[in-house]
Design brief:
Distance between the termini of chain A: 37 Å
Oligomer: heterodimer
Number of strands of chain B: 12
Order of helices and strands of chain B: EEEEEEEEEEEE
Strand content of chain B: over 45%
Helix content of chain B: under 10%
Number of strands of chain A: 11
Largest interface: A-B, 27 and 25 residues
Largest sheet of chain B: 6 strands, mixed
Radius of gyration of chain B: 13 Å
Shape of chain A: globular
Strand content of chain A: over 45%
């Protein structure tokens, strides 16, 4: 099976712009979670989507949003980018029903200048 | 709420030596526990997990961990370090299975000296 894919791998944006990141989960997986990784804060949970519905949400401002499509692919959007949004954004997929492992993609490295 | 503590940010061992990476958790309900490894410029790879049952769990690449409820610990060990083990290791906790939110520790960087 192909693993979790994320596009793009690298992105440079200017403060105030918005950005959309994409994640394709492992075939058959219905749950997609997003995490932000920074040197200062470590790995922090953003949100989880299951069958097109947001099932859980972390403590991030409303500028961070996401959605999931019927084929389980997910996108996350960050509006009005700030310098502090520079991070590695990781997507993880899991079957979503009583399965505990999450499988991570390689991440999208976002740099905000 | 659950939390994970990984003491120290860096561990250095000689090749062939024992690897011991410590993880303590806090959870108000029985936890599910995980160890992940991250190599430079890559995502996270699952090493092993504890959900229920046997408290000593074996993972990939010769790693294992033991769940000790009385000590709220889930330390990761490997009898003999290899150069390829050099990476960052994260301990994580989840409180339910179907709800996939993971809470991670700060991570420990493992260096292996030749």
């Amino acid at each position: 099976k192909a693993g979790v894919t994320q596009t793009p791998r690298y992105l440079i944006k200017t403060r105030g712009q918005q950005v959309t990141l994409s994640c394709s989960p492992i075939s058959g997986h219905r749950s997609v979670s997003w995490y932000q990784q920074t040197p200062g804060q470590g790995l922090q949970f953003l949100f989880e989507y299951f069958s097109e519905t947001q099932r859980n949400k972390g403590n991030f401002p409303g500028r961070f949003s996401g959605r999931q499509f019927s084929n389980s692919r997910s996108e996350m959007n960050v509006s009005t980018l700030e310098l502090g949004d520079s991070a590695l954004y990781l997507c993880a997929s899991s079957p979503g029903t009583e399965s505990y492992e999450q499988y991570f993609g390689p991440g999208t490295r976002l740099t905000v200048t | 709420a659950q939390s994970v503590t990984q003491l120290g940010s860096h561990v250095s061992v000689s090749e062939g030596a024992l690897v011991l990476l410590r993880c303590n958790y806090s959870s108000s309900v029985p936890p599910y526990l995980f160890w992940y490894v991250q190599y430079p410029n890559q995502g996270l790879q699952l090493l092993l997990k504890y959900t229920t049952g046997a408290t000593l769990v074996k993972g990939i690449n010769g790693f294992e961990a033991e769940f000790k409820k009385s000590e709220t610990s889930f330390h990761l060990t490997k009898p003999s370090a290899h150069m390829s083990d050099a990476a960052e290791y994260f301990c994580a906790v989840s409180i339910t299975g179907a709800n996939s939110k993971l809470t991670f520790g700060k991570g420990i960087t493992l260096s292996v000296r030749p």
